[in-house]
Amino acid sequence: SQKLLPDFCDVRNVFIVVLLTEVLAIVFSMASATSAQRFWDFLAVSSFLMLWIALLNTALLCQLRTWLHKKKQSHCLVFSFCLMMTESFIVSILASKADLFFYAVLDDQANHTLLMLRVMTISAVIYFLLLRYFYIQHQWRLNIAAQSHAEIQALRARIRPHFLFNSMNVIASLTRIDPEKAEMAIQDLSDLFRATLESNDGLVSFAQELENGERYLSIEKLRLGERLKVVKDIDSATLNVMIPPLTVQPILENAVYHGIQMLPDGGEVFIRSSVLNNKQTNNTQTTVQIEISNPISAEKYHKGHGIALKNIEQRLSVVYQGKALLRTEESDSIYRVILSIPLKLE
Q1: Any residues with CB less than 8 A from the CB of 61 and at least 6 apart, and which?
Q2: Per residue, what are the HEC states of 165-201?
Q3: Are 186 and 327 in contact (CB under 8 A)?
Q4: 123 pLDDT above the threshold of 70
Q5: Which of 92, 114, 257, 310 is the most buried (most CB within 10 A)?
């Protein structure tokens, strides 16, 4: 789920906080200092004060992030603002007691109250702008997620009729050849459709997708008999990887329709999955590779329109934001479809 506040426990976010705080300290020092010596004095003290405020606020939001996100969005923003202002006030009081303010300011006649007011005003402006930025980013992420959800639903709606059409053709051919097998195929098709139609709007495990694909192959095996052979080499570490529904089954459908069915002696549909580490992929993220291959005949090869593969590629692009890849290879009369998916476990 989308979170309003970023994870301030993450070291990368802490580094960004420190970096931005130093940039602000430099800007304030340049705006206030009248000489080079005064600039360095002001920068040293203001950096010390601002870093204390920034890091303590970061630690506070890190510890209370879960609690804050249980509140309504408006309450989360208000509580966050109040917490940060309270922490700034406490640090300002402590700094004032240590006479840091008098050392930093240019106006020697300035008093503690004026300096406290200045610090709290600057803090309020910064916190307001920061929380406003978080709110806008949160709304943008929600909008992107809604658009992605709608796009995925549209793509899935397009592929299901295609699958139903092919499956009904299988059953229609079986009714003339072997009515008993046709009855078994209808039962398998019923189970398969129940699984696909009841799939949630998110991702499903590769194990579930593989099971649905095997149901489809069992339907085709009733029609093709010994002409269809299935060989699997599945790495158990890949079974919990989350992928979009109706990803594997359409590829298996193409393997049978464009490959096995066109060969008089049939052939093997080979399914392999493996985990690729960073060295193998030259990527910072571990990926899972799913490969489905089938033999093809040069003379009787159905190329088709590639609708299913384009559909899968589009959905992978939406779900994984360009981090997942689909590619095809053809060599030695073998056609391969290879999916590379980020390792995302349940």
Answers
A1: 5, 8, 68, 80, 83, 84
A2: HHHHHHHHHHHHHCHHHHHHHHHHHHHHHHHHHCCCC
A3: no
A4: yes
A5: 92
Is the predicted pLDDT of residue 192 greater than 90, yes or no? no
Pairing label, strands 267-276, 228-234 = parallel
Sheet containing 325-331: which strands, arranged edge to edge? 228-234, 267-276, 287-295, 334-342, 325-331
Alpha carbon distance 276, 253 (integer Å): 26
Three-class secondary structure of residue 300 per DSSP? coil
35 versus 137: the higher-pLDDT residue is 137
Whole-number Å distance between alpha carbons of 56 and 84: 9
- Ranking 8-12, 196-200, 205-209, 286-290 by mean pLDDT, the lowest is 196-200
**pTM score, whole prediction:** 0.56
* Residue labelled with tokens 């934001």: 321
Give 201 or 266, the one with higher predicted confidence: 266
Q: What is the band of 262 on the pLDDT scale with cuts at 50, 70, 90?
A: confident
Rg value, the chain, Cα: 31
| Those residues with Cβ within 8 angstroms of residue 327's Cβ, 6 or more apart along the chain or in another chain | 337, 338, 340
Residue 234: predicted pLDDT: 94
User: Rounded CA gap, 152 and 317, in Å?
Assistant: 10
Secondary element (H or E) of residue 90: helix 73-97
Structural tokens at position 146: 């809604």
Residue whose pair of structure tokens reads 């360095």 in the numeric block: 40
Longest CA pairwise span in the chain (Å): 102
